[in-house]
Amino acid sequence: MLQLLSLLESLRARQAQIDAARPDPLLSDSQLLAAALANRYVTAKRITEGRWVFEFRGHVIGGFANRVTTLVSAHSRRLLHDPAQLRAHLDLMEVPHAIEYDDASEQFQPMLPIEFEETDDNDEHPALLQAYCVGKEAVSVIAVVADPAHGKRSLTIDVTDRIDEGIAQLAVDGLSSVPGLLAGAVNLQVRSLDTGDDGVVIGIDETASTVPHHYPDLGRGRAVADAVAEHILFTAAL
């Protein structure tokens, strides 16, 4: 859409300075979360390949496996992989959505990267957004757009501070409609960054990577791992 393409061009000029401040190489999902936990005196201990538990003052307070933390319940994972159940929960909570597929393998492909169709009227297309929500907050929102310089390649843009409150609320409502889901990515389709009207949830992904939110192609990025770590501590205290 024209709004995002204009934003893309304005951010390109400042991106080199942002990139220079990023670590080399960039941290992975597990490294980002481990660093955020360590800053809160929480220790990550490896159990088996890809599986970790988190200890705070001698107590196990959570864990992590394949990009999924204990902020995601087993019940919520079963529901997310059953589109009919997810549609029913979104309908019950009156969350606008466009969850269409009955085959979970079609609906719940990771949103990134996206391959775009090359058309002459991209500015007429709805904007594709991914909001990473933790608890009742959309901590980070990135837009996914076709790169004008590379045809079908997708670019991610940090638009967290540029979206209407209604868009952030739509994402939070989508996450909250799934019982036992306290953190994850909500994929949205909106007609403008300026309004949540006519916006719809097009998917909810509890396994989404936080890396594009920390290091978007354009924009400064958001500390999603810190929000996740803070919420793990919060839930452990309940």
Keywords:
alpha+beta; 238 residues; 4-stranded antiparallel β-sheet; D-amino Acid Aminotransferase, Chain A, domain 1; single chain; 5-stranded antiparallel β-sheet; 9 strands
Task: Tell me what the structure shows.
Helix content is 33%, strand content 24%. It has 238 residues and is α+β, with helices and mostly antiparallel strands. The strands form 2 sheets. Strands 7-6-5-8-9 form a 5-stranded antiparallel β-sheet. A hairpin with a 2-residue loop joins strand 3 and strand 4 (68-69). The radius of gyration is 18 Å and the shape is globular. The model is unreliable at 103-110 (pLDDT under 50).
Give the topology.
Blueprint: H1 2-20, H2 29-38, E1 43-48, E2 51-56, E3 59-65, E4 68-69, H3 74-80, H4 83-92, H5 104-107, E5 127-134, E6 137-146, E7 154-158, H6 165-176, E8 183-190, E9 200-205, H7 211-214, H8 224-236
Antiparallel strand pairs: 1-2, 2-3, 3-4, 5-6, 5-8, 6-7, 8-9
The DSSP helix count reads: 8
Write down the Rg: 18 Å
What would you say the CATH architecture is? 2-Layer Sandwich
The level of helicity is: 25-40%
| Main pleated-sheet profile | 5 strands, antiparallel
Beta-strand segment tally: 9
Indicate the CATH topology: D-amino Acid Aminotransferase, Chain A, domain 1
In the sheet with the most strands, the strands line up as: 7-6-5-8-9
